[in-house]
Amino acid sequence: MTTTPQYVTESDADALAERARRHLWMHFTRHSTYEDGGHVPIIVRGEGPYIWDDQGRRYFDGLSGLFVVQAGHGRAEIANAMSAQAQNLGFFPLWSYAHPGAIMLAERLAGYAPGDLNRVFFTSGGGEAVESAWKLAKQYFKLTGKPTKYKVISRAVAYHGTPQGALSITGIPPAKVPFEPLVPGGVKVPNTNHYRAPEEYRYDEKAFGLWAAERIAEAIEFEGPDSVAAVFIEPVQNSGGCFPPPPGYLERVREICDAYDVLLVADETITSFGRIGDFFAMNRFGVVPDIITCAKGMTSGYSPMGAMIASDRLFEPFKHGNTTFLHGYTWGGHPVGAAAAMANLDIFEREDLNGNVRDNEGAFRRTLEKLLDLPIVGDVRGAGYFYGIELVKDKDTRETFNEEESERLLRGFLSKALFDNGLYCRADDRGDPVIQLAPPLIIGQDHFDEIEGILRHVLTEAGNIL
Ligand SMILES: Cc1ncc(COP(=O)(O)O)c(C=O)c1O
Fold this sequence. Notes:
Blueprint: H1 16-23, H2 32-35, E1 43-47, E2 50-53, E3 58-61, H3 64-67, H4 76-88, H5 100-112, E4 117-123, H6 126-143, E5 151-155, H7 164-169, H8 173-176, E6 186-189, H9 205-223, E7 228-233, H10 249-260, E8 263-267, H11 281-285, E9 291-294, E10 306-311, H12 312-315, H13 335-351, H14 353-369, E11 377-383, E12 386-391, H15 403-420, E13 423-424, E14 426-428, E15 434-437, H16 445-465
Parallel strand pairs: 3-13, 5-6, 5-7, 7-8, 8-9
Antiparallel strand pairs: 1-2, 2-3, 4-10, 9-10, 11-12, 12-15, 14-15
Helix pairs in contact: 4-13, 5-13, 9-10, 14-16, 15-16
This protein binds pyridoxal-5'-phosphate (PLP).
Pyridoxal-5'-phosphate (PLP) binds next to helix 6.
């Protein structure tokens, strides 16, 4: 196997970082780091749960790329299916036409989805799926006699993508401020961060969940039920460091949505395709939403692909007369992406990746929880193969770091130290400072130990530099 793509020769590998510095605009990246002489990390190859950089160094991929590479890197079977599809039909749109790949994938996703979520609208990614879901919610209510319903309720610190609608739904002020004014109608409620719950709920997760759910009802009442179209929730919220739903929370949110005729949208961009041990996390939590948005793991990252999956009820008005959802994307349901998704889902079935997560999630949690003996580790939380480790200044009081300390800890030390020690993952402070882990779904105890070993070493050093 080659270690670099064909267009990178051994002799110019060193110059790549310089070329990146001159021409590549990296996403969500503080470019001054590289203008000031920092080396752009360049990943050239992946195999299983490992990746290699242009200097030949190996890293454990603790984030599956970006919550994406569920089946692991280097799957020839997916590449071959994509190649065969590209040779047969490289592209055709879904604009009034269909092709077999999109049809078969839509049927397969509907089969995995809960309840009567049977209608699949393909997008190129998660943000577009969120955007599509909001647009559908608005038009659905216009078509069914409630034209003033347009607002969306979502949760503090949640990330739902970068298109301007999805950004309105996003609850991270610094990500929004540069682009304001955004789409009107985004209303925020508290998330389910139990570690930071109001004092009276610290020791009663169920009561905390019901308290958080009631904040949604309160917001609907406050905004006016006739103005609210949808509630967007990640079953396990990523941003802020993996907040699982407290017991009873999702059930109560479903009841509230039903009571006010508000659509429940589960944004499963991260939590679908095995991350929580089922094709959709909502299957595991036993609550049926009206819409699921998904992307990332659908192809294990071998091709960009996303989808909005809607219930029969939401599609019903679009079956009649000249009613049309005037919305679409050139790349939605791309034939090569559909082929990648089908091959990826074949691997899921054959290797029982969901079963692997369910069998090993307890061991993953127990291994990560060993880190709680370090003074800097305040909380270990998550579900499936999806965890956040919250770092604190004072474990007893749960005091967090101030902005300057957080900057020094995360950007000044942790991100680089983890990578230098062979673990690619994410040190993030969109909420409180956390390390995020979402490894490929093919791994077991040996790899859990490897992750824990590197984290232990680096977090011990981090405690010393502060
Ligand atoms: C919950 C959630 N929604 C939406 C998005 C946006 O997805 P994309 O980057 O594919 O547009 C993300 C991306 O991480 C996400 O985590």
